[in-house]
Each structure stands twice: as structure tokens, then as C-alpha cells.
Design goal:
Helix content is 25%, strand content 34%. It contains four helices and six strands.
């Protein structure tokens, strides 16, 4: 009986190997709620999340070096953006990572009336990497000129 109680006490004191990992940092959660919202077009809503030295890439090519250049690129992209977010994921790696998967119509929707014809979908995955200062220092966008296909299973 004493051995049984001793083993039980020891097992309770040792954390389970398969315990749930902690959630991603709070700053990543907050950024995710804003950056994953496909309806946001105001630069002022996203500006606080980015570091002055942010660097952004689209399919491996540098599109922006510095916050001002990134925000200008983002604003131009969103000015004619009509899209939808499929989801986002947050991680604890380093100081936090956020990945957003979305799809958007590449036709210019800032014109009135909107362009004729059906949408021309582009699917992309955007990875935001946070630094120790809780700001985004790197943006990696992978984009393809087609719509998202969901697996059958």
C-alpha cells in the first residue's frame, strides 16, 4: 500500500510527456486577428505590428526593405484586393510566427464599376516572423496564380 501511494505521488509530480504545449505568445494572437482579416484596407490598422527594419519577399524576390516600403506595397496590394482568408496558424518558434492562407481576385476592384468577367483567383500563404521586441521583422509570401483546391479526404 505504501509503495502504491509513493508511486502515485511520484507520478503526479512528474508532468505528462504528452501534455498540451503552451499557446503562442499573446502578441501573435493579437496580430493574427488583424492580419488575417481580408476586409482590412487601412494601413493604420496593421502599421503597429511591423518593425522599422522589416524585410518582405514575394516568391523569393525582395519586395520591400523597411517599414515604409512594406506598408506602401501592402497598401497598393490591398487597394484593389477582394479576397477571403481560409485560415491562419500561430506558433511559438522564436518570438512567434503567424501564417495566413488566403485567396484573392487579381482584377482591380478599386474601379467602378468592377471589372467584367469572372474572378482571377490567386492563392497565397504569408508567413510573419516576430522578433524579441514583439514586432514583425520578416514577411515571406508564397503565391500561385490559381485557386485553392481542397483535398477530398
Amino acid at each position: 500500500m505504501r509503495l502504491s501511494l509513493a508511486l502515485s505521488a511520484t507520478m503526479l509530480a512528474v508532468p505528462a510527456v504528452s501534455s498540451t504545449p503552451p499557446p503562442p505568445p499573446k502578441h501573435v494572437w493579437i496580430a493574427g486577428e488583424v492580419l488575417a482579416d481580408a476586409a482590412i484596407k487601412e494601413q493604420s490598422r496593421i502599421e503597429p505590428f511591423f518593425a522599422e527594419d522589416v524585410v518582405a519577399f514575394l516568391n523569393g524576390e525582395r519586395i520591400a526593405s523597411g517599414k515604409e516600403e512594406w506598408l506602401r506595397w501592402w497598401s497598393d496590394d490591398r487597394s484593389h484586393f477582394y479576397g477571403r482568408t481560409f485560415g491562419y496558424s500561430m506558433g511559438r518558434h522564436g518570438s512567434g510566427v503567424l501564417i495566413v492562407v488566403d485567396e484573392h481576385d487579381t482584377r482591380d476592384h478599386s474601379t467602378r464599376p468592377p471589372p467584367a468577367g469572372g474572378p482571377r483567383w490567386t492563392t497565397r500563404s504569408t508567413s510573419y516572423t516576430f522578433g524579441a521586441d514583439r514586432l514583425i521583422h520578416a514577411v515571406q509570401i508564397a503565391e500561385t496564380d490559381s485557386f485553392l483546391i481542397r483535398p477530398k479526404s
